Amino acid sequence: MSLANPNYQEKTSAVVCLVINAIQYMPLTVDRNLDPTTLVDQDSVNPVATKAQSITEWLAATQRPKKGMWGIGAHYCCIFGFLKAGAMSSSYLPATTESLALAAEAKDPSEGISILYRVLDDPSSSPDALRMKEQAITNLTKLLTDENRGEDLRSLLTQLRPFFSLIPKAKTAKIVRGIIDSVAKIPGTSDLQIALCKEMVLWTRAEKRTFLRQRVEARLAALLMESKEYSEALTLLSGLVKEVRRLDDKLLLVDIDLLESKLHFSLRNLPKAKAALTAARTAANAIYVPPAQQGAIDLQSGILHAEEKDYKTAYSYFFEAFESFNALDDPKAVFSLKYMLLCKIMVNQADDVGGIISSKAGLKFIGPDLDAMKAVADAHSKRSLKLFEIALRDYKAQLEEDPIVHRHLSSLYDTLLEQNLCRLIEPFSRVEIAHIAELIELPIDHVERKLSQMILDKKFAGTLDQGAGCLVIFDDPKTDAIYPATLETISNIGKVVDSLYVRSAKIMA
């Protein structure tokens, strides 16, 4: 039978289709990097496409009818779909320990990342394969973090969404939070973290994953607060607090209340900050709180007490926070220690700063932060404004850029100014204000205003002679001991009279 005979056109189509079907199931060697839509005439690379293309050209040359042409053309398109699927399926690696070991042994991190991506492409959904994929995700996250590839981590979360439907929700939450934490380790990714959290909130809402959504929203609120977008963060927290309280999730409620306290403190709303912190402590007392979280509560308590000038209580809270963070090797330990030293300086115990720094716990955190506090303590001990200003200039990042320390710098400056003025006027009974201003290297009007304030606050006894431009210092008046003794005697007589009155009232009754 001649296939070119027009009398056998229908049979020709049937035979050609059988031939293509036979070719379709021949073993293929597909290059992973080859795009199936741009195939070339290479039998060794893609024999199916080559044979189908040859048959199509033959049909056109022999003027086959449209029905046969359409049949072959449609089959040709099916073959391309088959080839594309074959290329994709052949690009993955099986999710086994051998594949993970191959990625770990890769000399180049990029090669290891490529291998792990191929492991995740494995279509198998067996329990062992899923377990290996979870390990591959962990390893891939670590490699991408080490390479500072934040956008790739973001894309990874989107790519893994079909995989999340195959594993328990608790494992999904662990993976998502782990990837978000990894992005946070990459410097300069604040905007990326906010965008990533917003994407995950939308996805969790669509998938009705309430547990995960609440935690991602709490993380988003913290990021917004760090970015100084306080109104948006407060709006997000207000709804989240009500929702979590209805569910009575104590552990998450502690985090949210603590975050709300920090947010109100940033907005200088101390009453609401204290109320939120009290709510966090109340929730924490009902459950076991991890040491890191307890340390964060103590740290916030110390900050609020320091804001109220109760430095002794603040010191005790900072000490508790320092012990918690130090046991966990948390970087926040150095900030707790720094605020402890600040409290010592503010209560005029600057001499204790050197001892704390040279202790076993303090030596572990020697660095710019502790050096800055030591410089301030030295300036405070010597009552030297000049040394204080030098410390501010040399350690600007550690002092002025720290929001907690910066809040107390003005108070500390006033304290140092008062001590410096007291040191200068100690030898005098009468001194010109211009001379004091020259010695302290400050404007005359500023010094005069401060001296008048100190006299009113009874820091020392004296008066300002503005006509002569002089300060007159009086000797400290000695209290006569007879006056307190007289008052005590009168008080005792009053108690005796009251007692006699009560007894007489009972007798008369």
UniProtKB/TrEMBL annotation:
Transmembrane segments: none annotated. Residues 310-478 form the PCI domain. It comes from the Eukaryota. One of its GO terms (cellular component) is proteasome complex. The keyword Oxidoreductase does not apply. It holds the Pfam family RPN6_C_helix. InterPro entries: 26S_Proteasome/COP9_Components, PCI_dom, Rpn6_C_helix, Rpn6_N, TPR-like_helical_dom_sf, WH_DNA-bd_sf. This is PCI domain-containing protein.
